[in-house]
């Protein structure tokens, strides 16, 4: 049986990763290259 | 193989020192990172990039590698194991991610510091250089989560942990 705190932490991690992916996809680029190119 | 008490205490001391030191170093790095993201003072920004590079090379990377290595040694050399308890497994995964991102980011920071130090870089170009705030804030959050997990040590055995416990009981 997986403990509740593990499930909560995994869900929080997935939400954060998804949010980061969405932000990266909706902005014009990522990383230092976007300023120096 | 279980470690002798004296060895275990020495490695634990090194692990705690470098883990907490790593968090403190990220906090110091964050101050300079905020400067590069918000300041319009070219001299301050130039100095901040140099400080970020120094902190990364001389503090963050050595602390991170030592913390990760001593953590793995502690897991393998004690009853906790590396894969038996969720808190150890999750700490290992999160710390490994933090170390990999740090090592990749180190070369980016070195490049930024080089550009900032160059006399060919104008003040306008300098202020347009990117910051690394998402990585440093994200890294700090991950390290704080790992820190809490290591202090609280919440209950919970993995499937592997259950199986090993059953094997040891029946042996």
Could you explain how this protein is built, in words?
The complex is a heterodimer of chains A (37) and B (171). By secondary structure, chain A is mainly alpha-helical. Chain A is 73% helix and 0% strand. Chain A has helices spanning 4-26, 33-36. Chain A is rod-shaped. The mean pLDDT of chain A is 82. With 171 residues, chain B is mainly alpha-helical. The two termini of chain B are 17 Å apart. In chain B, helix 1 packs antiparallel against helix 5 and helix 3 (86-117) packs antiparallel against helix 5.
Q: Spans of chain A of 5+ residues with little confidence (pLDDT < 50)? A: none
- Distance N to C terminus of chain A: 51 Å
SS element count, helices of chain B:
6
Spatial extent as radius of gyration of chain B: 20 Å
Q: SSE string of chain A, helix = H, strand = E?
A: HH
Major β-sheet profile of chain B:
none
C-alpha geometry of chain B: elongated
Low-confidence stretches of chain B: none
Helix/strand/pairing category of chain A? mainly alpha
Largest interface: A-B, 11 and 14 residues
Silhouette of chain A: rod-shaped
Strand content of chain B: under 5%
Order of helices and strands of chain B: HHHHHH
Mean pLDDT of chain A: 82
Separation, N- and C-terminal Cα atoms of chain B: 17 Å
Helical fraction of chain A equals: over 70%
**What is the strand content of chain A?**
under 5%
Number of distinct beta strands of chain B? 0
Total helices of chain A: the number is: 2
Helix/sheet category of chain B: mainly alpha
> What summary fits the major beta sheet of chain A?
none
Key descriptive features of the protein:
heterodimer, A: 37 residues, mainly alpha, 2 helices, 73% helix, 0% strand, B: 171 residues, 6 helices
Write the layout of secondary structure elements.
The complex is a heterodimer of chains A (37) and B (171).
Chain A: H1 4-26, H2 33-36
Chain B: H1 5-38, H2 42-77, H3 86-117, H4 123-128, H5 133-152, H6 159-170
Helix pairs in contact in B: 1-2, 1-5, 2-3, 3-5
């Amino acid at each position: 049986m997986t403990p509740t705190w593990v499930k909560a932490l995994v869900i929080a991690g997935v939400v954060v990763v998804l949010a980061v992916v969405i932000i990266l996809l909706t902005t014009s680029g990522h990383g230092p290259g976007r300023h120096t190119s | 193989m279980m470690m002798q008490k004296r060895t275990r205490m020495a490695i634990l001391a090194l692990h705690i020192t470098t883990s907490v030191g790593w968090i403190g170093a990220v906090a110091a790095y964050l101050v300079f990172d905020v400067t590069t993201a918000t300041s319009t003072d070219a001299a301050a920004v130039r100095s901040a990039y140099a400080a970020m590079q120094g902190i990364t090379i001389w503090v963050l990377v050595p602390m991170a590698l030592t913390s990760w290595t001593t953590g793995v040694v502690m897991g393998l050399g004690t009853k906790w194991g590396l894969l038996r308890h969720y808190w150890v497994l999750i700490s290992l995964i999160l710390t490994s991610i933090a170390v990999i991102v740090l090592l990749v980011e180190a070369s980016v920071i070195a490049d930024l510091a080089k550009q900032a130090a160059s006399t060919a870089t104008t003040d306008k170009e300098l202020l347009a250089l990117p910051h690394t705030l998402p990585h440093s804030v994200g890294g700090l959050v991950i390290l704080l989560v790992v820190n809490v997990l290591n202090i609280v040590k919440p209950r919970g055995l993995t499937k592997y942990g259950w199986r090993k416990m059953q094997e040891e009981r029946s042996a």
